[in-house]
Write a structure and sequence with these properties.
Blueprint: E1 9-25, H1 28-32, H2 38-58, E2 62-67, E3 70-75, H3 84-110, E4 118-132, E5 137-141, H4 143-154, E6 161-164, H5 165-172, H6 175-180, E7 181-190, E8 196-204, E9 217-219, H7 225-231, E10 242-246, H8 250-260, E11 266-270, H9 273-282, E12 289-293, H10 302-312, E13 317-322, H11 327-333, E14 342-344, H12 349-359
Helix pairs in contact: 2-3, 9-10
Length: 361
Amino acid sequence: MKNFSSQEIRFSGDSIKSCVVFIDLVDSTKNTITMDNLEHIRIYYTKFMNSISKIVKNYGGKVIKNIGDCLLLYFPKASDNKNENAFREVIECGLKILDSRYAVNQELSKQHLPPFSYKISMDFGVLDLALVGDYSQIDLFGSTVNRCSKINSSLSIANQIIIGDNFYRILKSFPNIANNYNFINNGECMITETIGYTTYSIKKVSKLTLDNSSSSTTSTDDFTETKREKNLFFPQRNNNKRIILVDDDPDIIFTYESFLKDSGYEIISFTDPCKALNFIKDLKNFNDLLVTLDIKMKDLNGFQLQQQIKSIDPTIKILFITVLDISDEILTIVPGLSKEQILMKPVDRKILLSTVKKLLK
């Protein structure tokens, strides 16, 4: 894969409207700096670029260049904004890249190399064309490319697809696409200090549900991430109210589950806040849903997770359960939060049940 940044560029004056995509390899610098074998570094980056390039080609896309640890690509057939299949291929290409990551990471593990994680951003708009080097290669420039790059650099959670508002509007114009994918508002990406741009996460709608029992308690630690995405749908059965427990201490999760298991709630638990967030984004509805949050957690603390959850759907109920005696400070940090939404550890069973009941009334 050539990087043409040092070669002569001639702007053609031409432009097209199409889909542009950035795929960033997360933490690659941190991963490779620990490698004392140059051959391992070459294998690592070669596997990244070749595995993605093959998928992109199969879906009609073109890799334009690599920018450090990031690939820039576009989809020529998506220049026709009435070509539903072309736009579906863009989405499916991104999903295929994420899905294939598991097999690629198994291969990397056998060579004692760190796994791949990606940040994928997509948008639609005008792309300015330029010719590079001996003019046999094209490059892309312009506001759409810059905007898509900004979206990618703003992502805090890996292994998801975030699309810009322009792309979202086109996708929603196709009923089949709108019905087969979930689009969840991901908040605004600040293009400049004063200009924000709405973005959305995208997931394929799951057709699978859990069993038909009246209530359940399920821990995601029993599932791999792939199985979770395919099998856990967390439906609202028999109008039961639902609770998602998030705490990085498995013993505390076990305690909460034992307190709540006989109260008729649908319960699912996470010790990884990032997996909890991705799971919530996959849900089809957010009715009668409560999420309990610890504050001190790795990768994503309770405040950050609360903000992300509220951006998905502001009606989701939040309950902080923390060992930190900072209830007054929390009330000033988190707008709209009341004292009844904060419990101190160790939590009393009766108090937990009473608080949950009030929040889900």
